[in-house]
Specification:
Distance between the termini: 20 Å
Largest sheet: none
Number of helices: 7
Number of strands: 0
Radius of gyration: 16 Å
Length: 186
């Protein structure tokens, strides 16, 4: 079974018209399609860049030997030459120390994970379970970082993204028993 993939068009840009119907049907908030909203998955420069890189990944361009679950690390370390900090639960003290030493790279790591996860759904209409778990952890860490630094999520984006992501049930393994992307998992 072939999967229809949806890629942004330079003339249209980030839009519902260039997104998989499963993404459009489930992720209804306008901020998912706002390329200027820094809090949205594709609104920051990093999120927009990841989406472009991910489109290339699914078009089998220039990304060899990288699995989808390793894509965030690949972007951070191989493309941008930054340190990737995989999202994970941490106690307050460990998180405070990590933020004090590497706040920018931690934040960017989480943004890259979110853009990869939401990007996979936007392009394919499905998500691999490992990437869904990583995005869940990234959202949790982003909220914890904001709390630790006294920053407010005035619009409730993180809770909304977390809810939308956790209620999205179209993992490719639940729908398609065979790999539809030769590099989705290695």
């Amino acid at each position: 079974m072939a999967i229809n993939m949806y890629f942004d068009d330079e003339e249209i840009g980030l839009d519902r018209k260039t997104s998989h119907p499963h993404f459009v049907a489930h992720f209804k908030s306008d901020f998912y399609f706002d390329c200027s909203d820094e809090q949205s998955p594709f609104g920051s420069d990093e999120g927009a860049d990841v989406l472009v890189e991910l489109e290339g990944f699914f078009q089998d361009k220039e990304v060899e030997g990288v699995s989808l679950s390793d894509f965030p690390r690949h972007v951070m370390e191989d493309q941008w030459k930054l340190t990737y900090y995989p999202p994970k639960d941490m106690d307050e003290g460990s998180l405070a120390k990590l933020i004090a030493e590497h706040e920018k790279d931690v934040w960017m790591s989480d943004q890259v994970v979110l853009a990869t996860a939401f990007g996979q759904i936007k392009i394919t209409g499905y998500i691999i379970p490992e990437l869904k778990d990583m995005a869940h952890d990234a959202l949790g860490r982003m909220k914890a970082v904001n709390d630790a630094l006294g920053r407010e999520d005035a619009f409730g984006y993180y809770d909304k993204m977390l809810y939308d992501l956790m209620t999205f049930d179209k993992t490719y393994v639940s729908v398609l028993p065979d790999f539809w992307c030769k590099r989705c998992q290695m």
